[in-house]
Amino acid sequence: MNRNLRWFEAVADCEQRGEPYVLVTVVGVTGSVPREPSSKMVITGEYTWDTIGGGHLEYLVTARAREQLAASRFETVMEHFPLGASLGQCCGGSVSVLLEGQPGSDARLVVFGAGHVAQALMTVMGQLPWQVTLVDSRAEVFPADLAPNIEAVHTDDPVGDAPALCRGRHVLILTHNHQLDYDLCRALLDAGDAASVGLIGSQTKADRFRQRLTHRGYSDAQIASIRCPVGRSNVPGKRPMEVAVSITAELLSFGTASTTRGPRRGVSWPQLRDLMKQGEMPAAQTSQSAVETK
């Protein structure tokens, strides 16, 4: 985790890694204040980037943001803070702060095999809000530069590790070895708790695997849960990147609903205007609000 990012770099990083965050913006000030309007910071459940002035004001804003994140309230709210003795700051002004909660993503994908198709796929998935685990027994085949949302896992026992790695996750089997593909299929069918399983290969391979799995006693429903050939049939081409695009399109076609933890909401100008009006409280009410936030 890079702690030295500026706020806009932190937004891009959180979006790429699928991590929920709150974007904080100073939208209005009166009197003497630590930072000017449009100052921003980014807050996650564990880290913060940039600053709106530090001190008790930033402490309270961070606490409010983390309350939103902990409750999965991905909403836009306005908070008004007078910088008096009740906040432990003696600037004497006041600050209105907009907190915009963004839900991030909980979409997870495990890819077995780091060959040509998988490497092309990583180029695409590195630009999407999915958390990807790339698994291979060959350390030398992993790409040198992987996006922050992709983790390389080198293991000498991918079949044995598969159940724990794949629980509740979408899975793609793209290895260089048909027997390994088959063993992974059996391990995942036995576990029975992957979100989905896709297997690269031709229709001939699919038919062959179906026969072998039937012979081993797996039901038609279990065998049908493995998508083979994997990818969208209406996306042609056999080049690694063409296959990767086809696979990505398929993942997005059934994974869109599960890629975010909640609806992504912006704030319209009428909503912002109403929020700003709500922040324009009489002095007595403002003072009481500040006391209640201690």
Number of helices: 10
Shape: elongated
Order of helices and strands: HEEEHEEEHEEHEHEHHEHHH
List the uncertain runs: 281-294
**Average pLDDT value?**
85
Largest sheet: 6 strands, parallel
β-strand number: 11
The proportion of residues in beta strands is 15-25%
Task: Trace the largest sheet across and list its strands.
Answer: 8-7-6-9-10-11
Structural class: alpha/beta
Give the end-to-end Cα distance, rounded to a whole number of Å.
31 Å
Q: Output the radius of gyration.
A: 25 Å
**Oligomer category:** single chain
Q: What helical percentage do the residues reach?
A: 25-40%
What does this protein look like?
With 294 residues, this protein is an alpha/beta fold. It is 39% helix and 20% strand. It contains 10 helices and 11 strands. The strands form 2 sheets. Strands 8-7-6-9-10-11 form a 6-stranded parallel sheet, with helices on both faces. Strands 3-2-1-5-4 form a 5-stranded antiparallel sheet. Helix 4 runs parallel beside helix 5 (178-191). The protein is elongated and about 80 Å long. It starts with 6 loop residues before the first helix and ends with a helix.
